[in-house]
Amino acid sequence: MNIVDAIIQEYTYEAANTRKVLERVPEDQMGWKPHQKSMSLGQLASHIAETPLWVKDMVQTDVFEMNPETYTPFLAANRAELLQAHDDNAAQAVAILTGQSDAHMLATWRMTVGGKTVIELPRVAVVRSFLISHTIHHRGQLTVYLRMHDVPLPSLYGPSADEPGFA
Question: Rounded CA gap, 146 and 132, in Å?
Fold first, then answer.
């Protein structure tokens, strides 16, 4: 098995768990924020659905120049749009990753902001960090948002307080 196959297997598992959480986003609470500095529930869920799009830049470029002034984040209008974006973006990420060589995945990738390097890591580490870990981090935040709205949480790595079995 090459490196990317292991990443794809892990990501596919995590994407299914992520979808379980996104399926529970209450449409009538998309604008709700737990704190004025926090993203809204809709922004957070949309960010999670959008994250797989970043794989294209991670895999198809050696240096990515991030421009925060021109970046427009995706914002889903409703749950159906959110789930469609997640499904499409996850499939696209897997398609882009499929067949990548170990040499390509081990090559150094950089992200710059204003010409300054802010990340410089092997491509596999960037994909693992931003596609998988970053998504899991925000998915955890989203489960707290959902709990605050008394939305039952799905079983992810084992039983939840709302789903006592393994789903």
Answer: 21
Long-range residue pairs from 144-148, CB within 8 A, at least 24 positions apart, any chain: 144/34, 145/32, 145/34, 145/41, 145/44, 146/21, 146/24, 146/25, 146/26, 148/34
Tens digit of each residue's pLDDT (9 = 90 or more) over 54-65: 999 999 999 999
| Both tokens assigned to 1 | 């098995």
Domain ranges of the chain: 3-148
C-alpha distances out from residue 3 to 16, 99, 100, 105, 120, Å: 21, 10, 9, 7, 19
* CATH class of the domain defined by 3-148: mainly alpha
115 burial (CB, 10 Å; 0-12 / 13-18 / 19+) is exposed
Positions of the chain with pLDDT lower than 70, given as ranges: 166-167
Which of 131, 129, 163 has its CA nearest to residue 21?
A: 163
**Residue whose structure tokens are 């299914």:** 16
Predicted local distance difference test score (pLDDT) of residue 167: 60
pLDDT tens by residue, 7-35: 999 999 999 999 999 999 999 999 999 99
Which amino acid, one-letter code, is at 123?
R
8 Å CB contact between 19 and 85: no
